Amino acid sequence: MSFDRRIKIAPSILSADFADFGREIRAIEEQGADWVHVDVMDGHFVPNLTFGPPAVKAFRPHVSTVMDVHLMIAPVDPYIDAFAEAGADIITAHVEAGPHIHRTLQAIRATGARAGVALNPGTPAEAVAHVLDLVDLVCVMTVNPGFGGQSFLDMTGKIRALRTMIGDRPVHIEVDGGVTPETAPLVARAGADALVAGSAVFKGGSVAKAGVYGENIRAIRQAAELATGQAA
Ligand code: DX5
Ligand code: ZN
Questions:
Q1: Residues of the chain with pLDDT under 70
Q2: For residues 199 and 170, is the Cβ–Cβ distance under 8 A?
Q3: What is the pLDDT of residues 69-127, one digit of tens each?
Q4: What is the CATH number of the domain that holds 150?
């Protein structure tokens, strides 16, 4: 099976109604989401607190696409099995979260989940050069992690460098933070294929007005596809 490099939209449920996750997840999937992005924050690696394995387990039955779990926690290793058992399809750890990213990625792959490695804005692409054979995804942060609704930081140079380093390996380049119909073409043209978007997908919509989610998702996808010549 050839590797799917088409543009994928992964709404971040950090911007969803926390009191209604089940219906919010189903609504974004019905409206065209390719993946569901789940931001796990520990109040230590990042200055915010969100979900643990029990919440991820509760989300699982509502996700029919791919549950893309972004771990902004340190340490990571003690929690890998719990997130895998909770049903994460992709588990992404930050290269800055500890001294043993190679071991962490091996441990994630050992659970059967797909492995991802994330880089904060201040971290160079070279930091992951020696683990590209251990991952299914590299996540380029385009905001300093911890909150939704922040302004986009231009990391197109880093994305292009990663695209070259990855070569023809089956590895997605995911971009996370400040992705909108205006910034999506920049990152897609640089080589990103998975676009996380929180505030840009959920703004103006709700479970009752889910059509707005669809419009927002299509606007981001079309802008990215147009920029990469993937538009139908
Ligand atoms: C930030 C998270 C992002 C965030 C994106 O630390 O990793 O996934 O939710 O939200 P927006 O798209 O609003 O920047
Ligand atoms: Zn994220």
A1: 1-2, 232
A2: no
A3: 999 999 999 999 999 999 999 999 999 999 999 999 999 999 999 999 999 999 999 99
A4: 3.20.20.70
CA count, 13 A, side-chain hemisphere, 175: 31
Calculate how far, in angstroms, residue 156's C-alpha sits from the geometric centre of ligand 2. Answer: 18
Residue 26 resides in a domain: yes
List b or e across 128-167, with b for residues whose CB sees 16 or more CB atoms inside 10 angstroms: beebeebbbbbbbbbbebbbbeeebeebbebbbbbbeebe
Query: How far does the centroid of ligand 1 lie from the alpha carbon of residue 149, in Å?
Result: 7
Does residue 39 have an active-site annotation? yes
Task: Tell me if residue 89 is catalytic.
Answer: no
Nearest-CA residue for ligand 1 atom 4 is: 148
Q: Pocket around ligand 1: residues whose beta carbon is below 6 Å from it?
A: 12, 14-15, 37, 39, 70, 143, 145-146, 148-150, 176-179, 196-200
Rounded to two decimals, the pTM is: 0.98
Judge whether 164 lies within some domain: yes
Ligand nearest to the Cα of 90, by number: 2
Question: Does residue 3 lie in a domain region?
Answer: no
* Residue 1 maps to a domain: no
